[in-house]
Write a structure and sequence with these properties.
Elements: E1 26-28, E2 37-42, E3 46-53, E4 56-60, H1 71-78, E5 86-93, H2 102-106, E6 113-122, E7 125-126, H3 132-143, E8 149-150, H4 159-165, E9 170-175, E10 187-190, H5 200-205
């Protein structure tokens, strides 16, 4: 499995699979509608895959690179979730008054938090072939009463209008019955007037910064 979106891993003593390339949403200006679709908030942060193997945690990025900056967050989360091994997909964020504050996250202001929207592996079981609704149900139960946030979903495409009114980044549409596998398509629809987009290019390219990820192997 070498294509984008595939979960790549190394099996060691039948333990958790440790390398992942997350599914990448396709951008659209149109919200897909119909019975198969569910809708989640698109949180403005850094995509983060939380890996826990033998109770040892670490984050990897959307490009499967290690994220040493967020190791203290990974350690804190792993201490409070009752798993031996697991793989979560989600977003690292800093919450502001009206929702996620990307500038604060990027500039290392505020306390980072983690919100998960998918569960791919749990205590020796590969969950990727399960339909999305089942994975999310398992995820919600697992992270209840833990510091890991749960990204809930709705059936109403009108969520996008609410997001735009509240000046949030956008939504992600997913088919409730899809596996986590190559060929599965997630659709992101961004709010064109989102105020935090102003100056975003300069934020990334206008000044030197310390690395967020590491390309070194585990």
């Amino acid at each position: 499995m070498t294509s984008r979106g595939a979960l790549r891993f190394l099996v060691r003593d039948s333990q958790v699979l440790t390398r992942i390339e997350p599914l990448h949403p396709v951008r659209s200006t149109v919200v897909p509608v119909g019975k198969p679709w569910i809708y989640e908030l698109k949180l403005d942060g850094f995509r983060g895959v939380l890996n826990i193997e033998d109770r040892r945690p670490w984050f990897t990025s959307k490009n499967a690179n290690r994220m040493p900056r967020f190791q203290p967050l990974a350690d804190a989360l792993a201490r409070q979730v009752r798993v031996h091994d697991a793989i979560f997909d989600g977003e690292i964020i800093v919450m502001g008054e009206g929702g996620p504050d990307f500038n604060a996250l990027f500039m290392r202001r505020g306390e980072p938090a983690y919100a998960a929207f998918d569960l791919l592996w749990l205590d020796g079981r590969d969950l990727r072939a399960l339909p999305l609704w089942r994975r999310k149900k398992m995820l919600a139960k697992l992270v209840d009463h833990t510091p890991i946030g749960y990204v809930d979903h709705v059936d109403d495409p009108g969520l996008f209008a609410v997001v735009a009114k509240r000046d949030m980044e956008g939504i992600v549409a997913k088919r409730r019955g899809d596996p986590y596998a190559p060929g599965t398509q997630w659709v992101k629809v961004k709010h064109a007037g989102y105020s935090q987009l102003e100056g975003r290019r300069e934020l990334f390219h206008g000044r030197p910064r310390r690395p967020i990820v590491s390309r070194g192997s585990r």
